[in-house]
Amino acid sequence: MKLGVAGLLPGDWRKIDREVTQKVRNAGFIGAQLFINRPLEAQNTDIQRVKDAYDASGLEVAQVNGWYEALVNPDDALRAQGVLGLQALARIARQVNAPTTYVRPGGLNPNGHWYAHPDNHSPATFERLVDSLKQVTVVAEREGMLLAIEGHVLSVLDTPQRVRDLLDAVASPALKFNTDPVNFYGSVRDVHDTRPVLNQLFDLLGADTVVGHAKDLALQDSLVVHIQEVIIGSGTLDYDLFLKRFQAYCPDAYLLIEHLPDEKVPLARQALLQKAGEVGVKISR
């Protein structure tokens, strides 16, 4: 598998230059996620310049991500904007030779697409997501681009089975899975023993997994359940099992370290490589 990072780059993608990409490459990563803030406004000249900056330092665009309106928005006009935004990202990903375009399923909480809302789990929300993705996959198939959708316990895709249901409903060869195991832990017992959820993710979705996100999780001491994302190796995720099963299905795919401030990324990288070495999994970097 390949070692990449979602981070270490400017918030404004247009400020990415060779100096920045060289620093990421020198930090021991062969790929980095490219996040496009407003994909519908992205200019081809800027896209090409950023691609040249990646190429010049020997850094790959590991995945293209970006902001777009929620694909499950009940307002059809706004949802249509989300569809157009994701279609634009798929085209950009092809321009920069990224292996995947990241897909955020979206949500109904006005404070953020990853936050809780009771209707995130309704049949109507699921059907809107299916409809949106059927429209996006038309473009992705034409571009030869893989869409990698992620789930989360707070989202419409709250279980591995729900993701499986989505892939089957959309039924496009362009729609695949972005595995991020930490996102699927919502109970105390699951956090104490992470193996059942990990195995379910790979049993149901391993053959459709094309990229992974790497982080860890831990329960916080509190009178309410609070599951915190933590640096790899400092939590309870069974990385031996995760890495072995990811390697079995995705030997050439990217595993991206994410959700860390820049100063903590080297610690996560070191811990990930140590875990991989312990279980005999080779990570290119």
Structural description of this entry:
The chain is α/β, with parallel strands linked by helices and 285 residues long. It has a single domain (2-279), classed as TIM Barrel (Alpha-Beta Barrel). It is built from nine helices and ten strands. The chain has helices at residues 18-26, 44-56, 76-95, 123-143, 160-170, 188-192, 195-205, 239-249, 265-279; strands at 2-5, 31-36, 60-66, 100-103, 146-149, 175-179, 209-214, 216-219, 227-230, 254-257. The protein has an eight-stranded parallel beta sheet with strand order 3-2-1-10-7-6-5-4. A two-stranded antiparallel sheet has the order 8-9. The termini are close together. The mean pLDDT is 97.
Describe this structure in a few short sentences.
The chain contains 9 helices and 10 strands.
Number of domains: 1
Query: Can you tell me the residue ranges where pLDDT is under 50 for at least 5 consecutive residues?
Result: none
Per CATH, the superfamily is Divalent-metal-dependent TIM barrel enzymes
Would you list the SSEs in sequence order as H and E? EHEHEHEHEHEHHEEEHEH
Strands side by side in the biggest sheet: 3-2-1-10-7-6-5-4
**What is the highest CATH level, the class?**
Alpha Beta
- Measured on Cα atoms, how large is the radius of gyration? 18 Å
The major pleated sheet works out as: 8 strands, parallel
Shape: globular
The count of β-strands is: 10
Could you name the CATH topology? Answer: TIM Barrel
Query: End-to-end span in angstroms?
Result: 9 Å
CATH architecture identity: Alpha-Beta Barrel
**If you average the pLDDT, what whole number results?**
97
- In DSSP terms (H or I, runs of 4 or more residues), the helix count works out at 9
Helix percentage range: 40-55%
Instruction: Estimate the strand proportion.
Output: 15-25%
Q: Which structural class matches the secondary elements?
A: alpha/beta
